Please model this.
Amino acid sequence: MNKILLRAVPLCGLLLIVPGCSSGHQPATNEASANSTGDSAPSDVNAAAISPVDGAANTSAPTSPNVLSLEGLGGLKIGEPVPEGSGWAERGAQVSEACRTISSPGYPGAYAIVTGGKVQRITIGQRSTAELAEGIGVGASEAEVRKWFAGFREDPHEYEDAPAKYLTAPNAGSGSSALRFEIGKDGRVKMIHVGLMPVLAYVEGCA
Model:
């Protein structure tokens, strides 16, 4: 019996090199590694992701409908008409032929500006739980914003004293969707705007 066992050991060793003798454990794939977010801020990235350099959109399929990207929020897309049946509509907000302000019960604290029949800007405010893919949302500190978004242009706030300000992505004038933060006098994010100039820089809805 001992001789039989000793002969079986090398045979199994040989079988381990073929799939049939595999233990079933599979190594981690590159895709899984790519999906890991980690804790550190990103380095320079291309225009398909929100970056500290150019503020371009993170368009790589947000994992949640509550993630605000430069593409939009949920089914509402920058540069596209409001989708039928989406729940986004005028609700006592500023409305005119030239400019409409819309909101949705599904996204409290958020509103969008529509001109020319297309969404030009989406804004999240105090009651919104939406965030950027980087985890930055309303209430984040200016320091947290600058950790991820260096190089944003700083402008004085229209209604509040410093340190209140606007931080606008350097690509905002390029004709592409861009990012703009409104920082309050407490040094924290009051609003986050995503959209196209000149509507991106409107300070009061359609004005």
